[in-house]
């Protein structure tokens, strides 16, 4: 007589993880391009500008506008961290969203220092353009980028264990909960980037570095999670959520079709 097999261990739902990650990636992009660059430009002198998923473009520019994207992401990351610390009783899906939103904003913000320092391209290359001792400033960006990015990896790793409840030694689950968000973000941002009105070159100049490059810490952070990081509560499986999946589909379509093609924003209160 055959003996009954042990029940299969519940697995995190992949479509739900993809949906949560897509919403977090789009929100991070809007914070960087919309609030960081676009809103800063409109508040400090721009009459209008084109906002797309890969860039903010207007006739008005300044060092503050260029730095605004990174600064907005870092401020957002701090806010997500504060909220995360106060939502230990929230659903595992909400906590996971906050962790991934924290990760995307931290990695985008800190990654830009290193990217601009190495390539002399992008936001922070424009911030330091024209400053004396340019080579020194590039070196500072590279060093700052390496140090801050590694610190971001530690923060996200701790958050994933402590607040999402994933044990540090559960490498298969850590891999699922980091690799799936990484590729979800790359996919949705690059699809939107293909439609941008400025040119296809911005896909590999901006969209890919800001996603595939900046968020690559998700692919290796599991190796650097501090040993003293432990879950605050027992780990919960991320079950199927049609609400998150539906939200992701709606937000992704709007993002790709509207921000992908670009929209014009105007400073209506200008005299």
What features would you describe in this structure?
This protein is globular. It has one domain. A hairpin with a 4-residue loop joins strand 1 and strand 2. The protein has eight helices and three strands, in the order H-E-E-H-H-H-H-H-H-H-E. It has helices spanning 14-44, 63-85, 92-119, 123-128, 134-162, 171-193, 201-213, 242-259; strands at 48-51, 56-57, 263-266. 63% of the residues lie in helices and 4% in strands.
List the keywords.
single chain; about 270 residues; mainly alpha; three-stranded antiparallel beta sheet; 8 helices; disordered N terminus
Secondary structure elements and pairings:
Blueprint: H1 14-44, E1 48-51, E2 56-57, H2 63-85, H3 92-119, H4 123-128, H5 134-162, H6 171-193, H7 201-213, H8 242-259, E3 263-266
Antiparallel strand pairs: 1-2, 1-3
Helix pairs in contact: 1-2, 1-3, 1-6, 1-8, 2-3, 3-5, 3-7, 6-7, 6-8
How would you briefly describe this protein structure?
With 271 residues, this protein is mainly α. It has helices at residues 14-44, 63-85, 92-119, 123-128, 134-162, 171-193, 201-213, 242-259, and strands spanning 48-51, 56-57, 263-266.
Q: How large is the count of helical segments?
A: 8
For the termini, the CA-CA separation is 86 Å
Helical content band? 55-70%
Mean pLDDT: 91
Would you count the extended β strands for me?
Answer: 3
């Amino acid at each position: 007589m055959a003996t009954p097999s042990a029940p299969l261990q519940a697995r995190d739902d992949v479509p739900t993880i993809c949906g949560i990650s897509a919403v977090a990636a789009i929100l991070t992009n809007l914070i960087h391009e919309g609030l960081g660059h676009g809103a800063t430009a409109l508040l400090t002198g721009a009459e209008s500008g084109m906002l797309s998923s890969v860039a903010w473009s207007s006739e008005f520019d300044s060092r503050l506008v260029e730095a605004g994207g990174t600064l907005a992401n870092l401020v957002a990351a701090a806010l997500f961290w504060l909220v995360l610390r106060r939502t230990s009783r929230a659903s595992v899906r909400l906590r996971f969203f906050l962790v991934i939103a924290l990760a995307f904003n931290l990695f985008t913000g800190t990654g830009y220092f290193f990217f601009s320092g190495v390539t002399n391209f992008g936001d922070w290359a424009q911030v330091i353009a024209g400053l004396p001792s340019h080579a020194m400033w590039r070196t500072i960006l590279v060093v700052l980028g390496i140090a801050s990015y590694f610190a971001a990896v530690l923060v996200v790793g701790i958050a994933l264990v402590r607040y999402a409840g994933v044990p540090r030694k559960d490498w298969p689950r850590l891999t699922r909960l980091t690799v799936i968000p990484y590729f979800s973000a790359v996919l949705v941002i690059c699809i939107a980037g293909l439609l941008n009105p400025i040119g296809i070159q911005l896909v590999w100049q901006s969209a890919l570095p800001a996603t595939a490059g900046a968020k690559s810490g998700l692919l290796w952070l599991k190796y650097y999670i501090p040993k003293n990081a432990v879950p605050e509560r027992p780990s919960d499986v991320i079950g199927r959520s049609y609400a998150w999946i539906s939200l992701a589909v709606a937000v992704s379509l709007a993002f790709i079709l509207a921000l992908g093609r670009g929209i014009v924003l105007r400073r209506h209160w200008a005299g």
